[in-house]
Amino acid sequence: MTNKMAHREINDRNIRNTETRDREEDKRLYFLHDLDKYKVASEHPDVRGWKLVDSSHNEVGTIDNLLVDVKDEKVRYLDVELDENILGEDYDPQANPNVKGVHGFTNREGDKHLIVPIGLARLDKDDHCVVVDEVRRETFQRAPRHRKGTPISADYEFAVSEALASPQAGMRQPADRPVGTAVPGEFYKRREFDETRFYNR
Predict the structure, then answer these.
(1) Do the domain assignments include residue 11?
(2) What is d(CA 172, CA 78) in angstroms, rounded to the nearest whole number?
């Protein structure tokens, strides 16, 4: 790969970027379909359109997009359009005080998308799907959602991480979250962002 290539490739290690000059200085995350000069590396499947399933292979939703960290040049999240069998469960995410990170995010009509950290999922090439082994159906139902295409705030990233990730991952309390368009770089050192787990390495 050289800098003369018109298109850059996304792989499990990094992505290449030629478009950062005119962006907000602190913003890290962009949807892949908004980045004209990025594409999925040829050696990896493009999982957009694939089903996301739980450990029992019950359908959670469909992967609609990928969220790219343009500073570290990595995919950080799968943007998932949740299945009706998840949306149909009328959970109020603020009603359960034991679910950390969801307060302040009320799921409203039209909020059908959920970002899933890349390291919580793994490829299943045989069944042409992506599996999340460590998150229960009830957690997906309670997790804070967003409307398709809306910008992803730092506060929402923390809320999702706290709702979906293992308690052993060292989640911060809500009061410690930064406010703004980007989380600090060390946030992505957490286990749920380890992309090698996605590729079963």
Answers:
(1) no
(2) 22
Burial state string for 6-37 with b = 16 or more CB within 10 A and e = fewer than 16: eebbbbbebbbbeeeeeeeeebbbbbbeebee
In a domain, 138, yes or no: yes
Q: Look at the chain and report how many structural domains it folds into.
A: 1
Find out whether 95 and 54 touch, Cβ atoms under 8 Å. Answer: no
Question: Is the pTM for the entire model greater than 0.90?
Answer: no
* 110 inside domain: yes
Backbone phi and psi for residue 154, each to the nearest 5 degrees, phi listed first? -60, -40
**Per-residue pLDDT, 24:** 53
Per-residue confidence (pLDDT) for residue 92, from 0 to 100: 53
CATH number at residue 174: 3.90.50
